[in-house]
Amino acid sequence: MAEIVNLRRFRKQKAREAKEAQAAANRAAFGRPKHERKRIEAERELQQRRLDALKRESPSDCEGNPD
Fold first, then answer.
1. Taking Cα atoms as reference points, which of 12, 33, 10, 30 lies closest to residue 22?
2. What is the number of domains present in the chain?
3. What is the pTM for the complete model shown?
């Protein structure tokens, strides 16, 4: 037989868990010192520049192409 559940309590508990998950995400995103955030952003930029440098140009992108 199924267990009887109070929907109001269930809804409130679910809302509490969602708020806690959001709070954990905010702590991870905004709880870092400024120097650490800058370091992470610099690493992302470096990775993006490296990736952009490795991209190949398509023949239509080359200058002097008659098309």
1. 30
2. 1
3. 0.45
**Tokens 């409130």 identify what position?**
12
**Residue 42 is encoded by which pair of tokens?**
């610099």
Q: Which residue type occupies 36?
A: E
Whether 17 is in a domain gets the answer no
Domain that holds residue 44: 27-52
Residue 32 maps to a domain? yes
User: Residue ranges of the alpha helices (H) in the chain?
Assistant: 7-30, 34-53
pLDDT in tens, 1-51: 788 889 999 999 999 999 999 999 999 888 888 999 899 999 999 999 999
Is residue 59 included in any domain, yes or no? no
Give the C-alpha separation, 37 to 39, whole Å: 5
